[in-house]
Amino acid sequence: MTFPSLFRSHTNRNIKLGFVEVADQADPHSSVYSTIFQIQDITFSYREVFVHFDLEGRLLNIELRKIGAFPIKLLERTFQGFFNIYEDNCLNLDPKIEEANYYYDYYQENISSNEFLSQTLVKQVMHFIEELLINNTPHTFLEKILIQYSWEGLNQDKAKFYNVYPTPITVLPPETRPDINPLFAVLQITQGCWTHACERGPCAFCASFRGTTYREKDLPEIKRHIQDVQNFVGAQRKNIRKIFLSDADPLLSKQSPFETLQVVKKQWPEITSFEAFISSSAILSKTVMEWKTLKSLGISKLYWGVESADDAVLKILNKPQTRAALYKAAKRLDDAGIDYVVIVMSGIGRLVNKNSMDHITHTSDFVSKIGSSYVDISKFVPLHGTEIYRLIENDQLRRLSYDEIEEEHRILIENIIKKRPLCKITGAYGRQFI
Question: What per-residue confidence (pLDDT) applies to 106?
Answer without folding.
Answer: 54
